[in-house]
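Title: Prediction job returns without error message
Component: structure pipeline
Severity: low
Priority: P3
Assignee: unassigned

Description:
Job completed but the reporter wants confirmation the result is attached to the right record. Sequence as submitted:
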Amino acid sequence: MLRMWSGDIFERQSKLAGDFAAAAIVAHEFGHHVQDELSTQAGNFPPPKGKNGELIADCSAGIWAADFYFQGGLEVGDFEEAVTALEVIGDHNILSPNHYGTPEERATAFQVGYHGVRGGRPADPATCIRHYWR
């Protein structure tokens, strides 16, 4: 986790280094847990695999980041750190079954969650589900 603070995101170098990159990746991983819980609570409805599962987790991380913003926790540059961390783990191998989304798709999914703000509050998790659960 400490290596992420210096811009090393899973052995790929991000354009921006900082602590919020690591926080966004942890929020992304928690987003996978939320997917699993939603799947179980919906009567064993299978969670999305591959790219869409990753994009839901990125979107969920964006919702968390927006909530952190409304709590006064974000510093200047944090949003950009998160976006560039997710971009660096994107890939362009769209024909691979292990494709997890292009850098642009990863950044967009985070932004969908982050900017899905209504009435001064972060987006509802259903925003991510509507966009990416397939």
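Comment from assignee: result matches the submitted record. The beta strands are 8-9, 12-13.
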